[in-house]
Structures are given as structure tokens and as C-alpha cells.
Amino acid sequence: MAETPKTASLTIDGKTFELPVLTPTLGPDVIDIRKLYAQANVFTYDPGFTSTAACDSAITYIDGDAGILLHRGYPIDQLAEKSHFLEVCFLLLYGELPTADQIEDFEYRVTNHTMIHEQMHNFFRGFRRDAHPMATMVGVVGAMSAFYHDSTDIADPWQREVASIRLVAKMPTIAAMAYKYSIGQPFVYPRNDLDYASNFLRMCFSVPAEEYVVNPILSRAMDRIFTLHADHEQNASTSTVRLASSSGANPFACIAAGIACLWGPAHGGANQACLEMLREIGSVDRIPEFIDRAKDKNDPFRLMGFGHRVYKNFDPRAKVMKQSADEVLELLGIENNPTLQVAKELEKRALEDPYFVEKKLYPNVDFYSGIILDAMGFPTSMFTPIFALARTVGWISQWKEQISDPQLKIGRPRQLYQGVTQRDYIDVENR
Ligand code: SDX
Q1: C-alpha to C-alpha distance for 243 and 410, rounded to whole angstroms
Q2: How many CB atoms lie within 10 A of CB 280?
Q3: Candidate list 223, 231, 315, 366, residue with the active-site label
Q4: Using CB atoms within 10 A of its CB, is residue 26 exposed (0-12), middle (13-18) or buried (19+)?
Q5: Distance in Å, CA 305 to ligand 1 centroid
Q6: 304: CA distance to ligand 1 center in Å?
Q7: Contact 32, 44 (CB under 8 A)
Q8: β-strand partners of 63
Q9: Is any ligand 1 atom within 6 A of the Cβ of residue 365?
Q10: Is the dihedral of CA 375, 378, 381, 385 positive or negative?
Q11: What ligand 1 atom has the least distance to the C-alpha of 233?
Q12: Cβ of 322 below 6 Å from ligand 1
């Protein structure tokens, strides 16, 4: 016998409305309020989207209480240990782990799209050398709309595919060029004989004056950092990309919008802010002072790299990142790095403090990533560009999923109006 559809009853001014309840594969049920305004002439109010599902998706699932993160059903710790970034890109984009032939073809296509149009080099020269690389990336990625016209028609599946490959392939080149420009060194072209992470490290750190040999420890750690940042459900920057794409904007403009949103210190900018905070703390004996400040309601200071809207348990990415930090710094012979010692002691004391325990504040993906990136030789200003580079595949996967939804509607939230009621114009001589 067919199951009776679940409903939720909402009673307003004595009138009851039955709202359909949608059942997910995983996670909480969802009350479908799409017809609520038409039926009951009311809006729902959720400015931070703390209880709102803005879309349906099959890409990433997070269980914040259990500290679980799945990409197309595969746990992030398994992917970080057993897979590699371009294979994770394939999984996010196409829904399944690739066969050997599929990954070979995919890696060939990405590798052969890593160069950017030569004329785009001029864009970098329009920026001040001391511009933040994220500012440069927003500008240059947005400008891709002015060069790659043959992959901006979102109605054409083939153009959507080409734009996806171009963005995954060219982001490392653009990020590396933003870095080189900021330090006054010449741009380094990608090499097709290097893997994705090694190519990025070489484009960032090699100079024409000498040969550059990629350190396999660093390229493996770099690849793992890319994997840990690849996608994360409907976070702020992904939601920005989805909202921009709902108007039919081209993929390059949508990704530029995502980069702009990610830059904020409450989001992807936290990795830079976290390392700067750890350096400001400087030594373990100053930790109590900063923990007290983080708990002080009158002090805007927050522990950067701590807390999360969804995780009320350990961020599984932070666990892998912490292990990777230990490995990389030990292999580099800098396991006694003072910043790492401060980070570990700060984590230990915060997790023992009732304030953080009660508010369920744990280290997030940004808490340890900066320590590894710093050990690799990146300046803090490159931390968020690296996050953006890795998250591009997540943004594009979510963009493709939304664009191919036949029920796609333009996103247009309403509001709780708190302004003045209607009044007539007053001539200036009467004001
Ligand atoms: C990312 O959404 C994603 O998935 C994002 C991300 C991704 O992969 O896309 O995971 C990447 O953005 C990770 C988060 C990086 N940001 C930071 O590390 C910045 C520091 N963290 C916070 O600003 C905060 O925790 C947020 C922004 C991450 C989450 O904020 P919420 O969910 O809106 O929670 P909140 O601000 O309402 O905080 C709840 C309480 C508050 O206290 P009360 O008002 O209830 O008394 O916890 C407190 C906050 O003051 N709190 C903190 C804190 N984070 C929250 N207090 C001290 N230090 C902190 N870090």
C-alpha cells in the first residue's frame, strides 16, 4: 500500500495549513514551504539560513553532530588517504569514481587546459603589486568571461562541460600568477609532465634562474589540502555561486562571485586570519589571554579556525589536516615549529573550556591548514587563494547540478520589512 505522504500542520489565526514534508536520503526531513505564501500570505524568517534548505543536491552530505562529511557517499578521510584531487574532482563533477580509462582522459583534458589566454597576462599588470591575491583572482576569473565566449552559453551542455574543465584547469595557473605578480617574479607556465599539485607548486616557487625539483612530500600534502577543500554542501560561497547562476549568469562570473564571498574572514579568509592569530599569540603562555578575549561578549575577537555553522563536533577535515601538519613538519624537520605548538595547546585548552564545550566549538578546516601552507613557504595572503583554487570544483559541480535542474527558478528571497509605512513627498521648503 502506498505510504501516506508526510505533512506538517501550521495553524495561523485559527486556520491550519498542511505542508508537505520531503524525506531525504540522509539528514533531517524538509518541510516544503514553496506554496506557503500563496496559501497563507506569510513568509518564513531565517536570515542566516540556520534552518533553511535552499536547494536539493546529491553532491555532498554533512552530519554536523557526528562530524561526517561525504562526497557522493564517500567519507572525506577515505578520499584524503586513498584518492587524489583530480579523482575527487571527477567524483564531484560526474557522481562516480572514475575507471582507469576515465581518469586518464579526465587528467589529460585538465592538463591540456592549464594555460590561460596570453592576453590575460595584461590584466595582472593593471593591479598594484601589493594587491591581495584574492582581489586579483576575483578580477581575473571574472575577466575569463571576456575571453572564453565559446563556453559561456549555459544552455549548451557541451559549453558547460568545457567551462568546467577550463576553470578546474586554470585556477592553479591564475592563483600562481597572482602570487608571482605580488612578489615581482616572472610568471611560470604550467608543465604538462607534472601532476596537478606539483604543477601548482612549481608555478609558485620556481624561478628562471635555476632548476626547480618538486618535493614529493609537499606535492602530496598540497594535493591532500586541495581534496579537503573541494566541496562543502551549501556554504556561503557555494550559495553565492548558486544564487548568481540562478539568473543565468555565465560560469566565470558566478565563480568570481564565489571567490569574492569566500574571501571573508568568517569563511575562507579564516585560514589567513587563524595563522595571523597564532603568530600574535606567539607562545603558549599567552593562550589564556586570547581564550578570555574569545569568551568576552564585549570583545569582537573570535578564535579563528574555531567553530562552524554545521559541525557541532570535530570537523573531519581538521582531523586529517592535523595529521598532515604533523607529518609534513616532521618530514621537513620543523616539527618543533612554535606556531604548531601554540595551535595544539590552544586546541587542547579550548576543548577543555566550558565556553567552547557548551557552544560545541571545535577546530574547523582552517585551524591547521595555514600551518602546513606556511611550512611550504606560502605567505598568509596565498592561503585563501589556495582555498578558492580547491573549492572551484565544488562550486562548478554545484553550479552544473543547479543549471541542469529543469525546475530551476531564479533565487529571489523576500524580507521582514521594518521600515516606515507609506508617506507623501514633502517639498524641500516644507521640511
Ligand atoms: C569555513 O559553511 C561552511 O561549510 C564553511 C566552510 C567550508 O568548507 O565552506 O567549512 C569553511 O568557513 C569554516 C569556518 C571558518 N571561520 C572561522 O574559523 C571564523 C571563526 N568562527 C566563527 O566566526 C563562527 O564559528 C562561524 C562563522 C564559523 C560560524 O558562526 P555561526 O554558525 O553563525 O555561529 P554564531 O556566530 O552564531 O556562534 C554561536 C556562538 C556565539 O555565541 P553566543 O552569541 O551564542 O553567546 O558561538 C560563539 C558566538 O559568539 N562563537 C565563537 C566562535 N565561533 C562562534 N566564540 C569564540 N570564537 C569562535 N571562533
Answers
A1: 7
A2: 10
A3: 366
A4: exposed
A5: 9
A6: 9
A7: no
A8: 68
A9: yes
A10: negative
A11: 4
A12: no
Residue 394 Cα, ligand 1 centroid: separation in angstroms? Answer: 21
- Identify the burial level of 424 via C-beta atoms within 10 angstroms of its C-beta, where 0-12 means exposed, 13-18 middle and 19 or more buried: exposed
d(CA 343, CA 363) in angstroms, rounded, equals 10
- 262 and 366 in contact (C-beta within 8 Å)? no
**Residue 309: closest CA among 417, 220, 236:** 236
- The ligand 1 atom at the shortest distance from the C-alpha of residue 238 is 9
The verdict on the CB of residue 262 being under 6 Å from ligand 1 is: no
Q: Nine-digit cell at 219?
A: 606535492
| Residue nearest ligand 1's atom 35 by CA | 309
Distance, in Å, from the CA atom of 236 to the CA atom of 198, rounded to the nearest integer, reads 29
Q: What Å distances lie between residue 398 and 8, 26, 96, 364, 385, CA to CA?
A: 29, 18, 15, 22, 19
C-alpha cell at 274: 587563524
Is residue 308 among the annotated active site residues? yes
H/E element, 60 = strand 60-63
Beta bridge partners of 19: 8
Q: If the chain, 431 residues long, is cut into consecutive pieces of 10 residues, what is the mean pLDDT of each piece?
A: 86 97 97 97 97 97 96 98 98 98 98 96 94 96 91 88 97 98 97 98 98 94 97 98 96 97 95 94 96 96 94 92 91 87 94 94 92 94 97 98 92 97 98 97
Q: How many CB atoms lie within 10 A of CB 294?
A: 20
pLDDT of residue 169: 98
Compute the distance from residue 223 Cα to the ligand 1 centre, in Å. 26
User: Given 229, 308, 315, 374, which residue is catalytic?
Assistant: 308
